[in-house]
Amino acid sequence: MVAPSVVHYEGVTDIANAWSSGVTPDPLMNVSDWADDYRVLSAKSTAEPGRWRTDRTPYLREIMDCLSIASPVQRVVFKKASQVGGSEAGFNWLGYIIHMAPGPVLAVSPTVEMAKRSSRQRIDPLIEESSALRDRIAPARSRDSGNTVLSKEFLGGVLVLTGANSAVGLRSMPARYLFLDEVDGYPVDVDGEGDPILLAERRSATYAKRRKVFIPSTPTQKSTSRIDREFEDSDQRYYFVPCPHCGHEQVLSITQLRWREGQPEKAEYHCSGCEQVIEEHHKTHMLLKGYWKATADYDGITRGYHLSSLYSPLGWFSWADVAKVCEQAKANPDLMKGFVNTVLGESYEEEFDAPEWERLYERRESYPMGMVPAGGLFLTAGVDIQKDRIECEIVAWGRQKESWSVDYQILDGDTSQSAVWKKLDAVLAKDYLHAQGCTLPIRVMCVDSGYATQQVYDWVRKYPQPVWGAAGARASQPRTVVAIKGRDTETALILSVSKADAGGKRKGLRVWNVSGPVAKMELYRWLKLPRPTDEALASGEGYEPGTCHFPEYGEEYFKQLTAEKRVVRLKKGFPKSTWEKDPTRNNESLDCRVYSRVGASIYGLDRFNELQWKRLDMSLGSNSVASKANLTFTPTTSSKNVGLFQQQQSVVADDPYL
Hints:
The chain is an alpha/beta fold. Strands 3, 4, 5, 6, 7, 8, 9, 10, 11, 15 and 16 form an eleven-stranded mixed sheet that branches.
């Protein structure tokens, strides 16, 4: 009898080992471990390409590991500043799901367009740079690959990307995993179906305790911030780090960062325990030794984390950078909200109540109506259309967004007839005398198209239109005219440009969609700025950036300018800010000022550098006219606003239009 060969025995052993290996469950792996083993950062999406190292951002370890399938946590809220790597934690999680825990994933960005951008700039490089993921998702160029811009199929699951502005996308499928990115940018209500977070979370209801929801976002406005709301409903964790000198454990705070005014590059962080200076290079050791500590009760489902840019790793965003941005924000209130949101990672609380009209009335100045004061360098106009009149304010703008109301015209007439529009032609054609002896044209006139829409379109299309490009809006030439429409969105002053009409004689005309709330919040903040004393002005102290100056208008103008207030009300159970008008007042002068501000933005107010301001300064001298006579000028008034303007003004000029 022949004995069995050794080769045959070894072959059976190999098969048995292979079978045993195949039925053995994969070892449990956390998201942070997966990222360290498999994530490669692409040069397309980061300034530090190469292997991912969680030790570079150790504060992200616990956040990522809560998203692992072995963790009992179902919801992870991350209220964060910029420059801390929060978004990368979410993409590490997506890679982990595709490789280790497949299932249906819904990733929601504020808009569908942002979702597409995220897919191209972040998701595609994530897949391309990791061999573990490339093997699981077919190349996009393959026919029927299941790999499109908004959908990535893989064995055992699918990743669907959508925008919070699409109700269809939010209810497209059940999802075990939800990645709700930058929720403070989501709309309040999606197509009348309610809050987008609730719509999305309904998609995961059938997965009960097996679901995972990640909600990272930079906060925005305090009264309406979604990430604030989610964080307050969590256990509110903060990252404590030890002092390298005394070992005192503390949360990094802007109050401990100190520097001499004008020298932010010398900013030093002082320990809140021993008050010794902590050098920037100590940050790496402090972050590695840090830990998250809950400050509220934990419900077993939701964990919340907060982190500011003070924790940004060495080489990313330094304490000197924080100090520099802080100093800029103190000098320019327009930058303060961005500093609080993106650097401190906190929501911003503004005062929106209108100032008392009596206070503004008492602050009137004695410069002549119809003439541009010395600081004004260009003019814009805002036009409000009513049934029986057109109201128009001409505003001069100077450095640091300082402004002067130059004139306010009320043109009586039926706006369905051409006569009153000819009066507006004359207002636009007029050149306004400057205190230096030159004259200035209206650079941009913005006309509200909410009322008498077709008449507005017909009038606007006679004049040059602004252009919209990569650098934003800009006026193409003097006396540019813009049709605008107000929106309630609070994301930016100028929101978008849309077609006025698909065809007909208005073909090619554009309507500029603008945010009334953004302009009103800014204006009311400016109106509350303190004024320097006469002694301070005499000593050379200037006005605060954004200061608004007014000539001796009557009471009615200031009552209208302060006729609205911002209130927060619950809409379908969620806070929504709205602007409400005092029912006893008109608000035309407020609207005209808002439209004039939009015109200033189109002309370049928010983008000008010092060189451009100097060019405007120089243009005054090249356009001067002799000032030889005193002329008397009476502004137009309306019978409905008797007392809006109460006196004649003496203008030193040789202006053919007066």
